[in-house]
Amino acid sequence: MLRYGMIGCGQIAQAHAAAFRFLTDDGVAELVAVADPDPEGIERVAQIAGTVRHRFADGHELIANPDVDVVVVVTPTRFHRDLILAVCDAGKPLFAEKPLAPNYAAVVEVVDAVSAAGIPAQVGFQSRFHPIMRHLHEAVADRRYGEPMGYMIRDDQFWPTGAVVDGHTTWRSQASEAGGGALLEHSIHSCDIACWLFGPVRRVHAVTRSVFGYDVEDTAALTIEHESGVVGTLLTIFNGVQDREERRTELFFETGAVEATTDFIIGAPEDGLLVKGATGPATRIDPEELRRSTFAADGIDPDRELFVYQYLAHRAFASSLVAGTVPSPNCSDALEAHRLVEAAYRSAALGTPIAIADL
Ligand SMILES: NC(=O)c1ccc[n+]([C@@H]2O[C@H](COP(=O)([O-])OP(=O)(O)OC[C@H]3O[C@@H](n4cnc5c(N)ncnc54)[C@H](O)[C@@H]3O)[C@@H](O)[C@H]2O)c1
User: For residue 183, what is the DSSP state?
Assistant: First the structure.
């Protein structure tokens, strides 16, 4: 079994810990070490995973520990850079949460360091493992509705900061910690999906707002031109509507239109998929049937209650480590998404479209 160490034991680390519990049941991987200055966080994660043998206050000690084969970085974004550089120095495989860093210069530094170290690395864009997103990707790739023409993506979710929703930490509402708000912190997932579906971006025009008054944006609207010619829009919102974290993706092709709604938990009731071809009525594809057939095709028991897409992401990463293949989504993919975000922020600041080539 692959032996993992995870640095950061907060909110999303609990989803990673659940993923490792399932992977331990599979005989694939176990979470043997965790690091966090907060002992309560460590115990919460250790309880979920059930396999933790080493506990550290400092992530660098975890990276150096010989029992740790693979390192997972799940701290607040400000700490990712130093930890990822240390993982590169140690030459261990890396799973890093998105965003890679709060500012674009640090992102480029981290991506270059991972490449120079030659370590396998995957980034936490687990939305790619959603069966509905995979369905969209296949529809674009096999041109079943002809050429893709344009798209609209809308992300809206509650402000994940303690000042708006009890029980959350507060670093996300501070620019020095998070680097950005709804766009960087959350909708970098959608930027990744847009680049995954339609390829690299050529130019972006964006407007941002800060309605809640923090020094990061809670509203951003982007117009995106891809090198492939496809054009799209992305609207992202952090607001006070609790228990909501939804993405709406609408794709328009020469002979088809697809409307997808997705959430961040496996089997969420919000999930939906409607397809309209050139003629005839629109077809509603049952998301539960799609999930079951996708899981079965991947060799996953559809009746298993897996809850978290992090399981599928870590399962894919572990397979790539065993097979010696390049992990996906990796740091090159993350760089494309970060380029889109950075161009959007510069566009919003300058009030003019920004070409990716000019970053
Ligand atoms: N892929 C996703 O969908 C997703 C979802 C949520 C969060 N994230 C990302 O995961 C990261 C963590 O987010 P979160 O919601 O768990 O945050 P959080 O604030 O809930 O938890 C962060 C944890 O890291 C610990 N920590 C702080 N500094 C540390 C350090 N130097 N070393 C070790 N531990 C440290 C804190 O004590 C806390 O327990 C962020 O980068 C966030 O953007 C990704």
Answer: I
Q: Which of 86-95, 164-173, 209-218, 230-239 has the lowest mean pLDDT?
A: 164-173
The answer to whether 57 and 67 are in contact (CB under 8 A) is: no
* Share of residues in the chain with pLDDT > 90 (%): 96
**Other C-beta atoms lying within 10 Å of the C-beta of residue 106:** 21
The verdict on the CB of residue 255 being under 6 Å from ligand 1 is: no
Which of 233, 248, 235, 154 has the alpha carbon at shortest distance from 198?
233
Q: Is the CB of 36 under 6 A from ligand 1?
A: yes
The domains found in the chain, sorted by start residue, are 2-126 (3.40.50.720), 127-300+336-350 (3.30.360.10)
Residue type, 63: I
C-alpha 290 – ligand 1 centre gap (Å): 31
Ligand 1 contact via 125 beta carbon (within 6 Å): no
Mean pLDDT to the nearest integer, 263-291: 96
pLDDT at position 7, please? Answer: 99
- Please name every residue paired with 225 in a beta bridge, in sequence order, or none if there are none: 203, 231
The two tokens of residue 144 are 């079943």
Pairing of strands 354-355, 54-56: unpaired
CB 57 within 8 A of CB 23: no
Average pLDDT of the residues in 223-237? 98
Walk across the sheet containing 2-7 and list its strands. 54-56, 29-35, 2-7, 70-73, 94-96, 121-123
Ligand 1, atom nearest to 126 Cα: 1
Tell me whether strands 29-35 and 94-96 are parallel, antiparallel or unpaired: unpaired
Q: Is the CB of 13 under 6 A from ligand 1?
A: yes
Distance (Å, whole) CA 151 – CA 212: 28
Report pTM: 0.97
Please tell me the distance from the alpha carbon of residue 189 to that of residue 163, in angstroms, as a whole number: 24
User: What's the CA-to-centroid distance between 171 and ligand 1, angstroms?
Assistant: 9
- Quote the ligand 1 centre to 351 CA distance (angstroms): 32
Closest ligand 1 atom to the C-alpha of 125?
Answer: 1
Cβ neighbours of residue 143 under 8 Å, at least 6 residues apart?
none
End-to-end Cα separation, the chain, in angstroms: 42
